[in-house]
Design a protein that fits this description.
Largest sheet: 4 strands, mixed
CATH superfamily: STAS domain
Radius of gyration: 13 Å
Strand order of the largest sheet: 1-2-3-4
Strand content: 25-35%
Number of strands: 4
Number of domains: 1
C-alpha cells in the first residue's frame, strides 16, 4: 500500500496536474487529502488528477475526491480525472462520478 504524488502547475493552461501512482485506500487517503489541500492552497486553480499509474481506489479515496470537488466547485474551480484504468473507470461509472469527474479533453 504505497502512494506517490507529484504536483505540477501548468502555466500555459493555468491548472494543476497531480500524477498519482500506487493505491489510494484507507491507509493512504490522508496523504492524498493533504496533497490536494496543499496544492490548491498554493494556487487556487483547476486540478487534473492523472490516474495513469493508479492501481487501486477505495471508498475512502472517493470521499477525498468528492470533498475536494465540493470545496472547489464552491469557488468556481474544477477537479477532474484523466487516464484512469478500467477498474477505476468502473468504480466511477457505478457511483455516477464519471459524469462529473471524467473529462475527455484533459
Amino acid at each position: 500500500m504505497t502512494l506517490e504524488l507529484k504536483s505540477i502547475f501548468n502555466n500555459q493552461l493555468n491548472q494543476w496536474v497531480i500524477e498519482v501512482q500506487g493505491e489510494i485506500d484507507v491507509f493512504t487517503a490522508k496523504d492524498f487529502r493533504e496533497e490536494l489541500i496543499r496544492t490548491y492552497n498554493e494556487k487556487q486553480e483547476n486540478i487534473i488528477l492523472d490516474f495513469g499509474n493508479l492501481n487501486y481506489l477505495d471508498s475512502t479515496g472517493l470521499g477525498v475526491i468528492i470533498g475536494a470537488y465540493g470545496r472547489m466547485k464552491e469557488q468556481g474551480k474544477e477537479i477532474s480525472i484523466k487516464n484512469a484504468k478500467s477498474n477505476i473507470l468502473k468504480l466511477m461509472t457505478i457511483t455516477g462520478l464519471d459524469k462529473i469527474l471524467i473529462k475527455s479533453n484533459c
